[in-house]
Amino acid sequence: MTVAEFIERDTLFVGGRNTTPATSATITVRSASTEQTIGHVAAAAEADVDAAVAAARAAFCDPNGWAAWEPSRRADALTALASVIGGHGEEFTTLVSAQNGMPISTARQIEGGFPGALLSYYGALVREQPPEEYRRGIFVDGVVIRREPIGVVAAIVPWNYPQTLLFTKLAPALAAGCSVVVKPSPETVLDSFLLGDILEQHEILPPGVVNFVPGGREIGAYLVKHPDIDKVAFTGSTAAGRSIGEVCGRLLRPVTLELGGKSAAILLDDADLAAITSDLFGATMMNNGQSCFISSRVLAPRRQYQKVVDALTDMASSAVVGDALDDKTMIGPMVSEAHRERVESYIRKGEAEGARVTTGGGRGGHDRGWFVEPTIFADTNNQMSIAREEIFGPVVTVIPYDDINDAVALANDSEYGLAGTVWTRDKDRALDIARRVQTGTFGVNTYVPDPVAPFGGVKSSGIGRELGPEGLASYQQPKSIYVP
Ligand code: NAD
């Protein structure tokens, strides 16, 4: 399969229609698998951000607008949007896969499926939720508690799951009645143009409720500190999250930060290595390792260390590496040349620190596309940089542990706390370990974030939660009205 058409666009979706941008600045997008240019689109300047925020504010303040609609009317619109977007699932899938190298089989499940599921889920949730609740008071007869939309939201999205991570923000924000200004990543900007076209064509949402300002980090930083933004929802690196958190702290602006991770897979001594290989591959290398939640450290019982290293080595060396658009591909390329350089620099660092590559480490003979072979490191310890820092590539570090307490201590000995997994036939032991690992999410014999459950991190992995009812609440402002 190939990308259907070269995408060329000189307009920005602002205020419900494609508008002429303030400058002639552009973004060029290349295919991660072929390095060919696959799109050339307009980039937003500060004046475009001003226009987008103004459009979002006007939409939000319209007394008969989206924020004032009955929740059931908004829910109907979200359901309709889910159906329209679902009809374009394969286009989104192909575009994302071509841009960031996500294997198309993964993209089909996630980028093609999650956005519609999130719109339907949040539509149903807000339909059920009464907008006002009455509580009997202690000092007054009663209190009316209203759930009001928080206002104009800046949604800043990374390149690794561009549609899914956009909709983890957009779906609950829209359900709550907010307006949104989206800043996609320059690496994966084409799918946001497709979404803008769909929104313009179907007019399901009133003008200005969703706006796009594609651009780099400078445009993101300008949006974050814009005086007319009420909340920032950010997914990306911990370094960028810290800087956004500082700005929002100074402005007293609510912010959700979904950041990096260095999670651990704890393999117990009863794990059936042959049976779990496929799930373990997903949990450790999903999307070429370009996933915040992957268990990039595998903790193995010391007595079985060699057996685990051998199983992981087999798993990695048998993974099909190739063009992301090929259905057989299990590991595609890195998103960009710069990112491949970063991943390769960690492989060199690991070797320099004394760890041993048991498979991978190279480019697998690919002279086009930003490929890194799936790589396993043995003879490691938890102090090495390959065990402490987020590599964001198909690189797994296997670390031995002595007993369960040691395994839990190693899992917790990390700056991060986003995810983690445990692999065993004993569910009770698994749940006991799940309760002891300091992390926002955790998987037993699998790792699949579910829309109904809050997702987010502790420590340097972030602040706040997306998904679940908690995700909706983060776009609502409670107001108490005391009634004598
Ligand atoms: P990044 O931080 O470089 O960029 C993320 C987005 O923020 C991009 O749109 C970028 O243009 C923008 N940006 C960067 N600096 C900014 C600033 N100072 N102000 C405003 N906007 C800014 O991250 P990336 O390389 O695109 O994505 C990879 C990172 O994202 C990894 O660290 C990964 O762990 C993290 N991530 C976290 C989650 C999660 O849910 N916790 C999910 C996916 C990715």
TrEMBL record:
Q: Which organism is it from?
A: Mycobacterium saskatchewanense
The protein's UniProt keywords, in alphabetical order, are: Oxidoreductase
Which Gene3D superfamilies did the record assign?
A: Aldehyde Dehydrogenase, Chain A, domain 1, Aldehyde Dehydrogenase, Chain A, domain 2
Q: What is this protein called?
A: Aldehyde dehydrogenase
- Domain called Aldehyde dehydrogenase: residue spans: 22-481
Q: Which InterPro entries match?
A: Ald_DH/histidinol_DH, Ald_DH_C, Ald_DH_CS_GLU, Ald_DH_N, Aldehyde_DH_dom
What molecular function terms (GO) are annotated for this protein? oxidoreductase activity, acting on the aldehyde or oxo group of donors, NAD or NADP as acceptor
- The transmembrane residues are none
- Active site: which residues? 258
